[in-house]
Structure formats: structure tokens, C-alpha cells
Automatic annotation (TrEMBL):
The lineage of its organism: Bacteria, Bacillati, Actinomycetota, Actinomycetes, Kitasatosporales. Keywords: DNA-binding, Transcription, Transcription regulation. PANTHER family: HTH-TYPE TRANSCRIPTIONAL REGULATOR BETI (PTHR30055:SF234), HTH-TYPE TRANSCRIPTIONAL REGULATOR RUTR (PTHR30055). Residues 11-72 form the HTH tetR-type domain. This is TetR family transcriptional regulator.
Amino acid sequence: MSYTPPVDVKTRTRARILDAAERLFAERGIAAVSLREIGAAAGQRNNSAVQYHFGTREALVRALYEDRLAPLNLRRLDLLAALPDERRDDLSALVDIHLRPLAEAMRDGARESHYARFVHRFTLEGEVLSPPLGADVAGGVRAVTALIEDTLAAAEPDTPPAVHATRLRLMLLLVTATLADSERRLDRGAELPLPFEDLLIELADAAVAVLDPTGAVRRR
């Protein structure tokens, strides 16, 4: 019979803190939650437990992203690798690759998830991680975003980059808000307004309309 060693106490404590931080940040916002509150929600009696494991709020947020985003990054890279070369400027396909991994994580049921709501809060509050996340964590979303930006620039060469950047942020807010709302519904035991795949199709269509309001990309 093989022997399975017990899970390291420090690792379990770290995981509890990340789960508590994800939930509280999702519910109340990044800046509105103290590290002491996160520690208490994670069942830690020591008021400095979060500082001991993560140091600062910024380091905790970074750890949360690194922990949750890494598998989504791999999923995006796999989807991107499977996309034929002739479709690498297909805005609908690129948007689907962008949003699908987060949507799948939202409904996978492996654990109670607040990640979509956390990402929406982070996006809504305009938070920026400095230094940026590494390619092993965020390379997938960066690659897809770069292709979206290139596609918009090629279709509308005279449109200022700031306009395209604004559309991209609006798209991110739309996607994260919709998935956050869907995650909240699932958390309450309610059904999604549409079957999962239908919801993703509608969300992708809406996101494409935000990115390409003039239809310039779709007319190419």
C-alpha cells in the first residue's frame, strides 16, 4: 500500500487565505477589505497571518491571480494553438478564446468559485499589477489580446489607438460583468438565463459588437 503524506499545514493555510480573499474581494472590492478581515474569514487566530504568508495586499492579489489564472492561461494557449492560421484575425473566434476559459472555470464545480466576480471587481476598479504577471501566468490572455488589437488596427488603420483601447476595456467590462453575474446565479443555486454554450455565443456576439461597432472587421 502506498503512503500519501499529509498536506502541508502551511500550504493548506495559504489556500484558505486565498479562498477567503477571493470571496471578500469579489463581494466588497479590493480596497474595501482589510488583511485582518481576510485572515479572520480564513479561520486564522493570528491577526498577522496574511502578512506572514503574503506580506502585502498587492502580493496577496498577485498570488491570487497567479494561483487562479495559470490554468486558464494554459487553456487559452491550447485554444489559440488549435485555431487555424486563416482564422487568427477572426474576431468572434478570438473573443471566444478570451472569455471561454474564465466561463468554464466559473461552472466547473470543482470548488466554490468567486473568481469571475473577483476579476470583474479588479477590472472595474482599474487595478494594475506592477510588475506585470509573467508569461507563464498571463501569456495566453496577452497573446489573444494582441491578436484582437492587431485585427482592429488592420481593419481601421485611421482609428486612434486610444479608441481601440477604450473598446477593449468596454469589452472586458461587459465580459467580466456577465460572467460575474452568471457565477453569482450559480452560487445561489439558480439556473443560468440560457444554456451555457448559448450564453457564451450571445456574450461573444455582444463583445464583438463592442469591439467592432462600425462592422469594419466583419466586412473584410
